Amino acid sequence: ALVATHFPDDHPAVLAALGGAADLTFSYLKGAYAAAAATVGPPGGASGGGGAALLADAAAGDAYVRLLCRFEPRGVLPFLASRAAYSAAAALKEARRADAADARAFLLERLGDAPGAAALLASRVAVAGRAAFAAAGGGAVPVAERAAVRAALSDALGLCRRAAPDLPPTAGTSLWLTVLDALADVLRDARAAGAGAGARGELAALV
Known about the structure:
Blueprint: H1 2-6, H2 11-17, H3 22-40, H4 51-55, H5 58-71, H6 76-80, H7 88-98, H8 101-110, H9 114-136, H10 143-163, H11 169-192, H12 197-204
């Protein structure tokens, strides 16, 4: 962290000195990026400070994405959404290997494949919906599972709102249907399996 903040030109030397030790490199980069973000500030803010050099280093960003996929998959998406530089195409390959669906959807959207991103997010809606009905056991959907469905739907519908206006009308409509059909399939399967109308109504009301 001190290197990133006060000696921004030295971090390549530090990485070389670590000799490719994955755990040590991950720990160093995690601290360095945290310090850099604190120095430079949030996206949209003023740039500057020692951390800007690290954030502009795409090679370091690519290395950190690989290590996040290995050691801390949940940290991949927040890093991708930060102002750090990295190769989106390379990150997508790593996210696929790590089965990091949310990161893959983010990168697909960034690379212009909104339908691919919608398919991934729709799958997350379906998984969360089926888990919610399983947890309900014929009664009300538990709070945690309902929140998971709400979060999945929010991400998927947010993609539709962002991407559909820039697509041809048919493609834009298809984007929305990809997500809504996923939820409809879950509700249909739940009804066939005997899930209560109250639980189905809870999830349908989230749209």
